[in-house]
Amino acid sequence: MKSWILRFLCIVTLLSLFGCHRAPSPQFHAQDNPELLSEWGILHVDGGTLRLAEGVQAYRLSTPLFSDYAQKLRTVWLPAGQSAQYSPSSAFELPVGTVISKTFFYRRDASQGGRVQEAPAPSAATLDLRAVRLIETRLLVRRQGGWVALPYVWNEAQTEARLTRAGATVELIRVKADGAEAPFPYLVPDSNQCAGCHAPNIKAGALQPIGLKARHLPVEQLEAWSTAGVLRGLPAVTALPRTVDWSDEPIELEVRARAYLDINCGHCHNRSGPADTSGLVLDASATTDVAMGVCKPPVAAGQGTGNRRFGIVPGRPDESILLYRMESTDPGAMMPELGRSLAHDEGNALVRRWISAMPGTCSVSAT
Amino acid sequence: MALGACTRNPPAATADLSYQSTLIEQLIDAKPGQVIEIPAGRHVFDRSLTLRIDDVTLRGAGMDKTVLTFAGQKSGAEGLLVNASGFTLENLAIEDTKGDAVKINEGERITLRAVRIEWTGGPKTTNGAYGLYPVRTRKVLIEDCVVRGASDAGIYVGQSTDIIVRRNRVEYNVAGIEIENSRRADVYYNEVTRNTGGVLVFNMPNLPEAGAGTRIFNNRIYENNTANFAAKGTAVASVPAGSGVVINANDQVEIFDNTLRDNATAHIIISSYFSTGYMNSYSVAPGFDPYPEAIHVHSNRYMGGGDSPDGLDLKALKLAMMGVGGRLPPVLWDGYADPKKLVNGRLPPERALCIRDAGAVLNADGPGKYRNPTLDERSFRCELPPLAAVAWDPAG
User: Fold this and answer.
1) Which residues of chain B register pLDDT less than 70?
2) Residue ranges of the domains in chain A?
3) Cα dihedral A338/A341/A342/A343 (nearest 10)
4) DSSP SS3 for A327
5) Which residues pair with A168 in a beta bridge?
């Protein structure tokens, strides 16, 4: 209704020759779930460019979750005058009215027909729509009762994204760097599936942001927010927990592998998460022992064992269930359970190298 | 609805995905107390379903009338994933999910009634692992269900308390019914047949709580001789085909008034974690008790069985102990007892293995590397106080 009035006013304005190209401003919807992404005013399509509204901040993560080679533009918007409260390990406490967005996109392949390539990370807070194929924008909205997840799927013309609560399947073809093509179903989650990752405590069941934690955010980002007054309680740099960039080669293998597992697995595989039933802990709190899968027999992996006996067998990646499930694309065996149809070759290569270099054995004894 | 201006077919009549979004949106918008009726017909899904609202009932028109098929599933590790309390699922079938058919992770007052779970291609390693899978739940009732073809356990209750599993039919699964790391379970009036192992009561290491207190009674457990088709590395992969009831590392289990017939390895196997082949210096977190204790077997009827045990070791054991043409006795024990708890070489009465209805028990002498198996009746002649019934009354 509100948006209808806005559009009506727009037409009136147009008629009076004042133009209607002023960038929209973010609009918090406290209860209703708008059908169109534009009604949130967070992102707007301006000719051939996707832009952020005034006050909307783009941010990036040191190591992101793998999502079928999609690139992501992440933004956060806080209501005027409000700020986030720093936390050392959990997601920052964000005020009611906060809107977080994550737009998934690929580099548009010239040959079209659903062909996409991995896009470079967004360098600016805008996207050139001639170069990218937008797939979906997921919103996490902080309402009075807690966080709500809303998936919006972009139209082919890339002019608007529509609320798709039941999820969607977009058939795409990944064109690799060497030109090889791999068709895959890109799966937009339904609203309930969002909780599969965003409810890190299975008992509480409440949704939480994942990326907006101290350890996942680059220091310069945290400092900029602190300086701008939108982040309270930031400690000294030396006291900040850090997660490295998983692809930053000079950094020690183990540190990078752990950063990768933290963001890709830790939302479920933490001590109170949905995967606490497995006894396997893969977030930053885990130590390299049986809880992390070293020589650990599975609890309820079923056919997800891939005929392997232990989570991690030191020195033997091809005997490790962990890697089997990361390399699998069978929905009944693969990990993470949601969020990908493709295997992440580069991430898996990292974990493979880490396991290969791990010392020890898992000898079985009878007594 | 069909009489209105028909702009769309009723979902039952179509084999497309039209009903999928309808049901997903109903699950998203569900309110506590709501009953979501799923009409008769064959409904096709290519992604898993998720429910997160308390006190919701999902109800079909009958386990052979309302069928949810996931044969073409592209995403989601389950057919239906529930994270809610007060959940009831009844009168429908779920077929051919890629992973588990129904998983309920964390919740209480869970009722699964007259649900059929089936992998329609018969027993296959590539079938989903679990049929009905409540985990970290309290007050669970599973009744009048049918589960066929699970590549791990048909009915698998894990890390839960106050459980009733009754009047179900489980067949062609690796494990028919498995109670794991759970406290207080009553398993009765079930028809358990053609699985690899009929009823399993296990404790696994590296989990927050050990299980104890399972009663298995008035079941018909027969012809569980299907070759083990579990993926290697799973706990059930070590279960020999032809097992009626298998206890592993669990305590306080009472098995009585069952009919056990023609389970070709043994009707009842009592075993420790050492016999699973997973024991190693790293794999077991401190505090884990690998020994089965306070096991009470009485008043069962045994018929046939033990004539064709699975695996070379058990075949050799049969030959050595029973001769050509002999059969293993109804109850087999791997022989492991906690040396720290033994008093004069025996478990104290409250931790004893009491087997009063099966004649001599075959002690396989696992600790002695199976060199000196024995047949012994006297050592098992004892009695344990009956376990209390699960106090939770599902009707109340």
Assistant:
1) 1-15, 280-282, 395-396
2) 25-220, 244-357
3) 40
4) helix
5) A188
> Phi and psi (nearest 5°) for B322?
-115, -10
Alpha-carbon distance B3 to B151, whole Å? 44
pLDDT tens digits, one per residue of A43-56: 999 989 999 999 99
Whether B267 is in a domain gets the answer yes
pLDDT of residue B2: 38
Q: What is the pLDDT of residues A97-119, one digit of tens each?
A: 999 999 999 998 777 788 999 99
B283 touches chain A (CB under 8 A): yes
Q: Do A362 and B46 touch (CB under 8 A)?
A: no
Which residue in A359, A292, A343, A344 sits closest to A322, CA to CA?
A: A292
| Residues A191 and A165 sit within 8 Å (Cβ to Cβ) | yes
Task: Tell me the residue range of the domain where B376 lies.
Answer: 119-380
Name residues whose C-beta falls within 8 Å of residue B270's C-beta, 6 or more positions apart in sequence.
B247, B292, B295, B331, B332, B333, B334, B353
Asked whether residue B165 is domain-assigned, the answer is yes
Phi, psi of A317, rounded to the nearest 5 degrees = -60, -35
Q: What are phi and psi of B152, to 5 degrees?
A: -130, -95
Q: What is the pLDDT of residues A154-198, one digit of tens each?
A: 999 999 999 999 999 999 999 999 999 999 999 999 999 999 899
Q: For residue A197, which amino acid is it?
A: C
State whether residue B296 is helix, strand or coil: strand
Identify whether B359 is part of a domain.
yes
B99/A302 CB distance under 8 A: yes
Nearest CB to A309; choose among B136, B208, B233 = B233
Q: How far apart are CA A56 and CA A79, in angstroms?
A: 10
* Burial status of residue B126 (CB atoms within 10 A of its CB: 0-12, 13-18, 19 or more): middle
Distance of CA B7 to the CA centre of its chain: 46
Query: Both tokens of residue B139?
Result: 């007050």
Residue A338: list chain B partners with CB under 8 A. Answer: 75-77
How far apart are the C-alpha atoms of B95 and B155, rounded to whole Å? 15
d(CA A55, CA B98): 45
